[in-house]
Amino acid sequence: MTLRLLGSGGRFFFPFVVSLVIAGIFLAACAPDVIPAQDKGPRDECGLIQPTEEDIDKILSFGTDLFESDNWVRSYTVEPYKITLTRHNDVDFAVAYTEYLVYTCGYGQTELNEYFSPEGFNIVFQGYESYSQAGFCEAPDLALYEFDLVDEGADYISHYWVEQTDDTHVLVMMLVFPKGSAAQLEEYSTRLFPALPSCP
């Protein structure tokens, strides 16, 4: 099932180190009366709210070959409904941010439109001096937002992907590079998402 994402417009304020907040989406479902040992843990009415080991391995291995250089410093957190992975490169002044969102009860067009909206981006990127959306395009199960950013008077460019990986998970990936490193951003983008590295 492919759901459409809406391109946003206007100008907002961004944080340099991105931090997204996701709330659980609770829809009607019944948990089983008997919970196997391997499925024990905090639950909502649709299932376990903590990401699985498989989820964690998936995110930690995503794009690993691109970020092998010691210049990329990695940190990650695991919490109910999401995994957050940040890589920052102080040599190239670049950031790679990955988030895996868990919707135990599934998600629909409403959830996507609410989360990936101008208001949502305003919260996510509030640390930047300013931003403007430069592009938006889609492929099956994948959307790409392109941004021009300003931080401490310096210009940056960003690619921000949203991938519907299955009915209960959404992958978010953002790359930020200085405007003068557009070719480097394009190289990373092509290797991470060859089906949609940039918008026409």
Number of helices: 4
Second CATH tier, the architecture: 3-Layer(aba) Sandwich
- Bin the helical content: 10-25%
Q: Class, according to the CATH hierarchy? A: Alpha Beta
Distance between the termini: 24 Å
Topology of this protein?
Layout: E1 11-14, E2 43-44, E3 47-48, H1 53-61, E4 72-79, E5 82-89, E6 94-102, H2 109-115, H3 118-124, E7 126-139, E8 142-151, E9 154-166, E10 169-178, H4 182-192
Antiparallel strand pairs: 1-7, 2-3, 4-5, 5-6, 6-10, 7-8, 8-9, 9-10
Keywords:
single chain, 200 residues, alpha+beta, Protein Transport Mog1p, Chain A, eight-stranded antiparallel sheet, two-stranded antiparallel sheet
